[in-house]
Design a protein that fits this description.
Order of helices and strands: EHHHHHHHHHHHHHEH
Structural class: mainly alpha
Shape: globular
Helix content: over 70%
Distance between the termini: 48 Å
């Protein structure tokens, strides 16, 4: 007889909180693409990255002071520094630059190599497992990302240089995530995010002159979008990402980000009035289906129930012992 064992509520709660944090991250990162499109018309890639990171540092710094977080332990600084350099700094500048050189579809195609690199690097450097469900889900989601990218291609010019920039962004994204994972075992999610954002802002300081010059001429809407990028998709979303990453594998978290293209299509439809085609909608559905598969878990199935014989009653035991005594005496 087979039975399915349900984990107790106390063990499900951390998993549900991590899933909720990952959902917040994905939704806010999807909204970032809409804001970048608006802010990018008035700000150059480096200036936009610096303004976004400075807004994020101020927000995270205030929260750290209120919570009295303090400095991360020394053992966490290596991962924080590497993730801050690659992901918060280099990635944001190169991605902004790449999206000015290629159309949105090509950028989405190339950057979505990142989750695959995260899974491979996580398995190689962190010893993360690559279960069949994760690999299958990533394959389905990547097919969806390719479909979305192909359906959106042709909206602008593409160049080999732009493709290289987007590929570099994907590599930096993957390297930053894998470097961040060990740091989360030694410092809190808020500490890792705050000081990673600070490292990224320091890396982008050479763009200070551009930021000051462009902010003087930029419309208020573009500047507000830049601040929004720093407060929500950076400060809040990177913190919820770190919280979820600390409680699962890098590969599984990377696969979760495949929901971003589907949400970008939906938000562009609702906010910008860009009606997606059937091919784009189909690709978005594939992205979400792949995420669902990669995040699913096998149900724990108990083995066959063991039949235990009932203990003999005391009277039966006494009667058997009596019979043995009689047999012994007659012999």
């Amino acid at each position: 007889m087979m039975s399915t064992a349900r984990p107790p509520a106390s063990s499900r709660r951390p998993r549900l909180l991590a899933a909720g944090a990952a959902t917040v991250t994905v939704v806010l990162w999807a909204s970032a693409f809409v804001s970048i499109r608006s802010a990018g018309e008035a700000y150059s890639p480096g200036a936009l990255a610096l303004g976004r990171l400075l807004s994020g540092v101020l927000t995270l710094g205030a929260i750290c002071l209120l919570r009295r977080e303090g400095l991360p332990p020394r053992s966490a600084w290596r991962g924080i520094a590497i993730s801050g350099l690659l992901w918060f700094g280099f990635y944001m500048v190169v991605l902004n630059w790449g999206e000015q050189q290629v159309d949105a579809g090509t950028a989405a195609l190339v950057v979505n190599v990142g989750p695959i690199l995260i899974a491979l690097l996580g398995a190689r450097l962190l010893g993360d497992a690559l279960p069949p469900r994760l690999l299958a889900g990533m394959a389905v989601s990547f097919a969806g990302a390719v479909t979305v990218g192909l359906s959106m291609s042709g909206e602008g010019g593409s160049s080999l240089f732009g493709v290289v920039l987007c590929l570099l962004a994907a590599v930096a994204y993957a390297g930053g995530v894998v470097a961040q994972k060990p740091a989360l075992g030694r410092a809190s999610a808020l500490q890792v995010t705050t000081f990673g954002c600070l490292v990224g802002a320091v890396v982008c300081l050479p763009f200070t002159g551009q930021l000051v010059h462009e902010a003087a001429d930029a419309p208020v809407s573009a500047t507000l979008n830049m601040v929004y990028l720093g407060v929500f998709p950076t400060a809040l979303a990177f913190t919820t990402w770190a919280y979820a990453l600390a409680r699962t594998t890098a590969g599984r978290m990377g696969a979760t980000t495949y929901a971003v293209p589907a949400l970008v299509v939906l938000m562009s439809w609702l906010v910008l009035g860009e009606v997606p085609g059937l091919l784009t909608l189909a690709g978005g559905a594939l992205c979400l289906a792949g995420v669902a598969v990669s995040r699913s878990r096998r149900r724990a199935v108990a083995g066959p129930e063991r039949v235990v014989a009932p203990e003999p009653r005391r009277a039966d035991v006494d009667r058997r012992q009596g019979c043995r005594s009689d047999q012994a005496g007659s012999g």
